[in-house]
Amino acid sequence: MSLSMNLPSKVRLVEVGPRDGLQNEKQPISVADKIQLVNDLNAAGLSTIEVGSFVSPKWVPQMAGSAEVFTGIERKPGVVYQALTPNLKGFEAALAAGADEVAVFAAASEAFSQKNINCSISESLERFRDLMAAAQAANIPVRGYVSCVLGCPYDGEVAPAQVLSVARELFAMGCYEVSVGDTIGVGTAGKTRALFNLLAREIPREKLGGHFHDTYGQALANIYASLQEGIEIFDSSVAGLGGCPYAKGATGNVATEDVVYLLNGLGIQHGIDLSRLAAAGQRICDVLGRANGSRVARALLSQ
Ligand SMILES: CC(C)(COP(=O)([O-])OP(=O)([O-])OC[C@H]1O[C@@H](n2cnc3c(N)ncnc32)[C@H](O)[C@@H]1OP(=O)([O-])[O-])[C@@H](O)C(=O)NCCC(=O)NCCSC(=O)C[C@@](C)(O)CC(=O)[O-]
User: Could you tell me the pTM of the whole model?
Assistant: First the structure.
């Protein structure tokens, strides 16, 4: 039971650091370092880890070695190792690499859809159909993402009804859960609550996830607002790694360490060992030669 009767007692964190976190890094990162990151996250208790993506290497070169990463990781029973896939080709590659589950991604804004995956929203949804059929035949669960739900770097304001329409389509075609993403981190708590309130009129709350970037420093406030709306699934990235190659200026995802600290304070269960998690984040930051983006990790590691 959480300290507040109105909040969920348990949350599932989807760790997207190895994919969303690393995809935007310009410097080469070795397959060994990526494998180490996934293994460290495993050891810290994450139950769902997005290991990599099977997208065009011309579009996102950093994810080119994802198959080797999948092959090299130590698998822990009960942990879901997920891959991001934009089409059937990506799905087949993910399946061959041993992904337990895949994620498809659509946008709530037309301009972002074009920039990110080179097609309109409706074309992207159409593209997922053969992937969904192949996934169903192979018994592979498919997660859905909707990007730019609280604003778009090209189109500006995004209508909540448009987010609902894309999320509804993803469910209708068979996604078991949909994560809605504030790709450029412009959302605020009030808008977040209003969005989930609208989505929950048609989609069960326990099937909705929140994916917040911290560009404007609002991610934790938005997560708290989502918890108040009964949302129990959040995507986060160790050490706040990340940024989207097709959203200029977008900084990292909310740091997993910061979310865990928030949940600890609220008495909400999550199953993650914060000190191991902070060590995992610092290790990859040392590899990348960049500052740790988690304030909680910085505070803990300086003690
Ligand atoms: C979707 C495409 C492929 C369309 O790209 P396209 O150029 O329109 O597609 P195409 O079908 O014409 O193929 C072009 C080339 O890519 C190859 N190709 C085609 N598919 C694949 C594949 N799966 N894996 C490997 N290669 C592939 C294909 O074989 C061909 O190779 P070529 O003949 O030129 O040598 C491209 O636009 C793409 O890969 N985009 C990926 C963009 C991306 O990964 N963005 C970041 C992830 S989304 C995100 O971060 C947001 C999220 C999810 O985190 C949530 C949030 O924050 O909001």
Answer: 0.96
